[in-house]
Design brief:
11 helices, alpha+beta, five-stranded antiparallel β-sheet, Aminoglycoside 3'-phosphotransferase, Chain: A, domain 2, Phosphorylase Kinase, domain 1
């Protein structure tokens, strides 16, 4: 069997045997976990057990993106809070080992769900409702954590976060600019001109959605772990709610939404809360005023369009490992239009 690129077992095994003090890692196998369109995630198996390794993509890494140290730091800090995260086992910052920094964490038992739920899991509408409510509850729990109390008081600069986010993603777009997407620049300008006032600041995940969590395998409604923290920082919690709603499909979504659906979501199944209900649940848990939510959703569409552009650039450069990238380029223009319409009419679409 050919080992997947980016985590050569002949290198990883001896390294972990030394780093973890467990000779059983000397001989290990590595398996690419499907579904990653950004950082690469591998399952490592050996006589010493099973763990998960995360590393950046193999090439075309944009500045500030794919920060392994950042992911490791925030999950280490959140261990023991109400936010479920895997236990961190090791961080390697020596790029000479695998060509980039990486970290190793415990393997959590759970389900990563995207466009469907496994047969026999959360079959009833009530159980699906519980899954949706669980996702909102964990997000509210995250935004309730006092950063300073978990050692993250200096994890970011919350003042001016939304303005910086717009500038950051414009720079990302400039770094992977594609032909034939004329609407992105005007949308960026409109977002920059209408940045809302931040009510409160806290730890933001940056890409919170169903398939960046693991659902408990036997208890629908319980979230086993929140994953993929590469965009986390201190900032405005509405940015997290905005991106969650961008990814949140619901029954009855029309062509407009379907054309921009980069990741089809199981949330369209009967029982899951609607986007409006998700917002209501979040407001009830946090007490936040959601009048600025349309801006946050519009920004989420903009950011996702830029992420898609980056994926297209890496695919063209041969730097993506795995599959599932077909049609990504065709999603960009619909995402831009969804962002423009949401901002223009101040309605969450």
């Amino acid at each position: 069997m050919t080992a997947p690129a980016g985590a050569d077992p002949s290198v990883v095994g001896p390294y972990l045997a030394s780093a973890l003090g467990e000779p059983g890692w000397q001989e290990c196998t590595t398996t690419l976990i499907a579904g990653g369109k950004s950082n690469l995630t591998y399952r490592l198996d050996s006589p010493a057990g099973s763990v998960v390794l995360r590393r950046p993509p193999l090439g075309h890494v944009l500045p500030t993106a794919h920060d392994m140290v950042r992911e490791h730091r925030v999950m280490s800090a959140l261990d023991g809070t109400a936010v479920p995260v895997p236990r961190m086992l090791h961080l390697c910052t020596d790029a000479d080992v695998l060509g980039a920094p990486f970290y190793v964490m415990e393997r959590v038992e759970g389900l990563v769900c995207r466009e469907a739920l496994p047969a026999g899991y959360a079959d009833s509408p009530a159980q699906r409702r519980a899954v949706g409510e669980g996702l909102v509850s964990v997000l509210a729990d995250l935004h309730s954590v006092d950063p300073a109390s978990v050692g993250l008081g200096q994890f970011g600069r919350p003042e001016g976060y939304l303005e910086r986010q717009v500038r950051r993603w414009v720079k990302q777009w400039d770094a992977t600019r594609l032909e034939g997407v004329p609407g992105l620049d005007p949308l960026a300008a409109d977002l920059a001109a209408a940045v809302p006032v931040t009510q409160r600041s806290g730890i933001v995940h940056g890409d919170y959605r169903l398939d960046n969590t693991m659902l408990h395998p036997t208890e629908p409604g319980r979230i086993a772990a929140v994953l993929d923290w590469e965009m986390s920082t201190l900032g405005d919690p509405l940015a997290d709610l905005g991106i969650l709603l961008v990814y949140w499909s619901e029954a009855g979504d029309g062509d407009e939404r379907d054309m921009g659906a980069v990741v089809k979501s199981a949330t369209a199944l009967e029982g899951f809360p609607t986007r409006a209900e998700v917002a209501e649940l979040y407001a009830a848990r946090t007490g936040m005023d959601l009048s600025a939510l349309p801006w946050a959703v519009s920004f989420g569409f903009f950011k996702l369009a830029v992420v898609c552009a980056g994926i297209v650039a890496r695919v063209r450069g041969g730097a993506m490992v795995g599959d599932g990238f077909e049609g990504i380029e065709q999603r960009i223009a619909p995402l831009v239009e969804l962002g423009r319409a949401t901002l223009a009419d101040q309605q969450v679409r």
